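Re: the 340-residue chain
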Amino acid sequence: MMSESLKSISVERKSISRPGTMLAIENLCVSIGGSRILRDVTLELPDSKVFCLMGRNGVGKTTTLKTVVGLYKSTSGRIHLDGKDISRLPAEARARAGIGYVPQGRGIFPHLTVEENLFVGAVAQGKKPKRTLERVFALFPILKEFLPRKGGMLSGGQQQQLAIGRALLTEPKVLILDEPTEGIQPNIIDQIGEAIKLLRRGGHHNEAMLLAEAGHSLKKLEEDGNYPKPELLETLTEQIRALQREGVHRDPGAFRQINDTFAVLRKEGPHEGTLLKDEIAKALGLLNAETSMTILLVEQYLDFCKELADNFAILDRGSVVARGSVVELTDEVVKEHLTV
């Protein structure tokens, strides 16, 4: 008998691909070698969120990922990316549409250099992602240091960072990670976790410094005393301080509010050759320069999932048996569906 708490997150089949959904998988069925592997899998991944797909070994998690990226063909069901049906597209077209994939085992090219590994996907798509490369080096500084080194000479954790960086250079809308912590040393697991947090919320990799610079420039404007509406300066200063107090966790609403206040400041005050035009505008522009992304994560490390995920689903025998927000991933749910 299923408990009441498990009933509350059990799955009902429904038609999806609603506004705000970046990746929608609907009633997906897959058979391999005459064996049915996935049975009516339905998942909905909101934009700019981390979704963790969980389950015991051999229940269909990797098959789900490979079907999404186009390596396996589905027998029925639909897959929508950002509202567009990609169900019948080949793998390379799905990659161009915005699917980035880091497979289990990393899949790097051992005889190519780190630099060649990084760019192989982007070059295949005809992209020159200069800004994204800077972002990758900010997330994983060791890659910049090891650019001339052969991929096969890296440690397992460094290879994982390389595989993630390679996927990021294709500038995906959805980043799919299959067991990214498998066989990785704890310090690199922490780095990967922090990278996932930043990718989910978007923004600049050095937001703390940019917010501090904007706040310092506002303080100089206030001290100058020539701005016609000092109350607007006070409002923007407090909005920036609020983000700093909260640990610079990206809140889209808060960032929009800051941008709106800054727009009023620019309209009401002087425009040319001022802190408003130069220092503050540059800092706030950089804060919004890097986009967020949706992340689909398959992971066995429970604490890693609980720390990073916004939502989860659990597979068993090729079917989704539970789903919900990560706060609903209780000990009871873990014992019922994940404990071996």
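Residues 207-287 form one domain.
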